[in-house]
Every structure is written in C-alpha cells, then in structure tokens.
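The material for today's practical consists of a large collection of protein records. Backbone structure tokens are a discrete shorthand for how the chain folds in space. An example says more than a description, so a record of this kind follows:
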Amino acid sequence: MPFELDLPLGLRKEGWKIKIRDKERLEQPHVTVLRKTDCWRYGLRDEVFLDTSPDPGNVPKAIRKLLTGNLNLLRQQWDRLYPENRVGGSL
C-alpha cells in the first residue's frame, strides 16, 4: 500500500502530491513529488533531488519545507513499505 503525505489544501488544489509509490523496492529510498504530469524523486538518504529533469528548481519552497519537515515520517514509511531496502541500510 503506497503512502501519501497530507498536504495543505492550497497545495493540493494546485495539484501537488508527495508519495512513496508501490513497486519501488529496488530503487534508492525516495519520495516522489508530483504535479500533474511532472514528477521529481527526492532521496531519503542524501536529501537531494535525484533527477535533473524536470528541473528541481520548479519545486516550490513550500513543498521543499514539507519534505525536510517530514523527513523522519517519510523515512519511517519507506522502511515500513520496503524493510529489505531500509533508508539506513541493512537491519
């Protein structure tokens, strides 16, 4: 079951989502930031955007603050969904 972070109403109305998707167990631990057809992967280990396209500079400051402010929760949820690929490494 995927995990979606609750966002303020204004950001949701603009189409923003922050999710840990299904079937990503083999990838580096990350959350996906979505807006319409654009998506950005944000690494839960290194705390940086993993891709250069689309431009991470297009992610608003409010979303970036939500990522960093909820980092512990996002890491816990990744570890819950993918215990064989934990954020902190092996058990």
